[in-house]
Amino acid sequence: MEQPILPPESLTNEAIAARLTTTADKKQREGLIKKRNLVYLELNGCSGNIISLLNGQNPTFEYTLHSLVNLRYSNSLMASEGEQATEKLIDVLDEDFILAVEGAVALKDEGLYNVIGSWNDQPLTGLQAAQMLGERASHILAVGACATHGGVSAAKPNPSESVSLQDVLPDRNMIKLPGCPVHPDWFLGTLAHLLLYGEPETDNLGRPLMFYSTLIHDRCPRRPFFDRGIFAEKLGDKTCLFKLGCRGPVTRTDCPTRQWNGSVNWPIGDDTPCIGCSQFGFPDAMAPFISFDTTRVVKDE
Amino acid sequence: MSKRIVINPLTRISGFLEIEVTVDQHVVTEARTTGNLFRGFEQMLVGRSPFDAVYFTQRICGICSAAHSMASSLALEDALKVEPLEQGRYLRDIIHCCEFLQNHIRHFYQYTAPDFVFIEQNALFQTDHNDFRLPKAINDRISKHYFDSLPISRSAHQMLAILGGKAPHNHGVFIGGITTQATSEKIVQLDSLLQTITAFIDEKMIPDVYDIAKYYPDYYGVGGGYGNLLTYGSFNDYKELGTLYVDPLVSTLEMTEPEPFDESNISEKIDYSWFTREENEYQPDETVPEPDRRKQKGYSWVKAPRYNGRPMEVGPLARLILSGAYEHGISAMDRTIARALEAKKIAQIMKTLLREVLPGVDLQKKYDLPESAEGRGLVDTTRGGLGHWLKIKDQKLSFYQIITPSTWDFSPRDDQGFRGVAEQALIGTPIEDPNNPAEIGRILRSFDPCMSCATHVFSKGKQVKTIKVF
């Protein structure tokens, strides 16, 4: 590191993330950091995280591909197909690589509910791929709700018997990036940190503090309404959405300041409650997402 | 001598698809598509709050999540007897337009182009075949557009977020239209972004697709399939604007002209799907079967929807032909061209809708849940007709059925011997090099398979009374 980053420079999460990626770019150009291999595995999920990554802005996905990593495998993007694609996954096993996984691991019927390819004419299940690559990877990123804690793929009654990546790799340390989907900055910023300084500081659940340390509620622009007890009664109202079931008071992300899709908006900005998509236990622990009167008398289930 | 070719995974699609073909004398004689992912959304939805269906079902698919918010909102409006204001419809349909644009641009440049264009020296773009025919100047131009398209598709999602909060998995589409109100600022923000996207489609995407077609004319001769087309209607039936794109129509080779679509002709079959139930055929609003990965005859997680017993093709080409806007033919290349032409069409529709939007209209109210109700939402989305059928009991979801566009296009065969649409489209295809068959992937990708969507489906196998939805 040339210059330590100290005040009076801006210490917002956004500014730190921006500095990280600019520094990464500079160091990469100067040959100070080497591009590393990245394997991006999609398992039992909606492939929405890779779509979110394509939405990344500064750093963009193009930049990531050209300046940060050699993307060696991605079901959504690679030109190869069939066993020739799987071969690229096998080849990387003997090299140094960072593993990013989105989607949960389906356990039912030995993993046959999620077959991601074939190898030597045999189906390669998500379970096999996660274990095979997870054991060899130098760093692991669990990307999105399904990979970090099962997410929607493991929602009750969990028909595919899906579990988190950590559940099938209990001894491996991994960085967890919950979110449905992950914010592109959370992923790309973490990746940049890994390449520059190693693994970022995380909380007891494995989430990088630079993105997941503060409650939405603590930085919510509608907090003054909460403090004065002025609550929305329906979607579309401009006041505090707490009584419609807003999960901002329990969800730790920087959505209020970072916002989404080039910082144009975010769920609360859209006059809807946060549904806690970045909380462990989402969706079941965060349901119901929308209640028109949370002060009602709750009937027995 | 016949040779068996298996492609698994078929990459550059959403989700997991396996394809097995038999090639005899360099011609495909048999084909089987296998959906390789099962999640079970329909079972997960039972017991949840009906309002949660809108955000929950979006998680079926990362590339077309807004589609599921559309169908679930329509189904809930049907069940709750809510009629949205036209302003609500306009705004919701604008969000849907944004998804079409995002999807079509990404599908063409990120998923389709690498089949025909050598992108660059990068581990990600290493190819398996050498059938790259474009002159260097054109190849380099489209290869550059692969990257130039990324800020454009990104800004399509940005437009979606302006009205929808975030993308993918938006918060905006809901009962009544959208959750928030339009403002003058948002309208010009959208119009400005749309202008850049429209210019990209006109100046780059459409010329690029026709250049590819020029150098790969043989793809006009393959991938045709049955020629049965279906749409549930798209941007249609506005009170004042009428139909901006296409009404609900079907056509088969036996018909002289397209006929109105009739929902009661839809059934789903599971003879060759990994599901069991006493009867192998049922209506969408009946209950559906249990997953059974060990079923002997089964070979896919995708079920087989049929219209009057026929497999039907859905998607941009079907819509363009049924609306009378495209007459060239039905083939792999026509399908790819249709997607680019449709992107232009959708941009025009969005412009029209934007002109109608009034700022500051509150579209939301406090909704009450009935003790019991049924509803269905059918809408054409990026890949074709999407249907959600739901039932409410004790103010909770008691039933949820989803038939996605890729279920129509990537179904397995049925008891009448009909193959799925994509399977049929492969039959008769000449394969130049059976060891590196470029043709199969190109034909399948022309359908824009979304196997995350096609293979989510499942609900508890308890027989309930059939309920007429009209």
Automatic annotation (TrEMBL), chain A:
[4Fe-4S] cluster 1 binds at C46, C146, C180. It comes from the Bacteria. It holds the Pfam family Oxidored_q6. Signal peptide: none annotated. GO terms for cellular component: [Ni-Fe] hydrogenase complex; cell envelope; ferredoxin hydrogenase complex; membrane. [3Fe-4S] cluster binds at C255, C274, C277. InterPro entries: Cytochrome-c3_hydrogenase_C, NADH_UbQ_OxRdtase-like_20kDa, NiFe-Hase_small_C_sf, NiFe_Hase_small_N_sf, NiFe_hydrogenase_ssu. Residues 212-289 form the Cytochrome-c3 hydrogenase C-terminal domain. [4Fe-4S] cluster 2 binds at H217, C220, C240, C246. Residues 46-194 form the NADH:ubiquinone oxidoreductase-like 20kDa subunit domain. One of its GO terms (biological process) is anaerobic respiration. One of its GO terms (molecular function) is 4 iron, 4 sulfur cluster binding. It is found in: Cell envelope. Keywords: 3Fe-4S, 4Fe-4S, Iron, Iron-sulfur, Metal-binding, Oxidoreductase, Signal. Its cofactor is [3Fe-4S] cluster; [4Fe-4S] cluster. Coiled coil: none annotated. Heterodimer of a large and a small subunit. Belongs to the [NiFe]/[NiFeSe] hydrogenase small subunit family. This is Ni/Fe hydrogenase.
Automatic annotation (TrEMBL), chain B:
Keywords: Iron, Magnesium, Metal-binding, Nickel, Oxidoreductase. Mg(2+) binds at E42, I402, H456. Fe cation binds at C64, C453. Its cofactor is Ni(2+); Fe cation. The keyword Calcium does not apply. One of its GO terms (molecular function) is nickel cation binding. Ni(2+) binds at C61, C64, C450. GO terms for cellular component: cell envelope. The keyword Oxidoreductase applies. It is found in: Cell envelope. Pfam families: NiFeSe_Hases. Belongs to the [NiFe]/[NiFeSe] hydrogenase large subunit family. Heterodimer of a large and a small subunit. This is Ni/Fe hydrogenase. It comes from Salipaludibacillus keqinensis. The lineage of its organism: Bacteria, Bacillati, Bacillota, Bacilli, Bacillales.
